[in-house]
Amino acid sequence: MIDRIVPVDRPPAEVEGKCAMELTMNVQLTGRDRAILRAVAAGNAELEWGAEPDLFLDGRCCCDQAAAHRLARAGYIAPAAVCTAGQRVAACLTAAGKQELGVLAAA
Fold first, then answer.
1. What is the pTM of this model?
2. I need a labelling partner for 49 at 20 to 30 A (CA). Which of 19, 66, 84, 106 fits?
3. 86, 52 in Cβ contact below 8 A?
4. Where are the domains positioned within the chain?
5. What is the pLDDT of residues 35-79, one digit of tens each?
């Protein structure tokens, strides 16, 4: 269930090694959502950016694109670099995604 959305005032980009797309959305995560977040955290994920970003894990299309779309819209995953529509770039966890998984951000 979505409670609130805080709009993004700038495009996704990598700023000082961190994902700059920091949306905030309250979403109740499923076990599959957490598994996708863990896969992104492992570093083998890519996003093809667009109106509904597609997620690729180990070069293959994620089997649950609806979950990937929801995680991107909720601000848990984002492109790790500036990208244009249709371009595939590395995916990363945002601060919210790291917090959800309990991953401590490097100081």
1. 0.70
2. 106
3. no
4. 5-101
5. 999 999 999 999 998 888 999 999 999 999 999 999 999 999 999
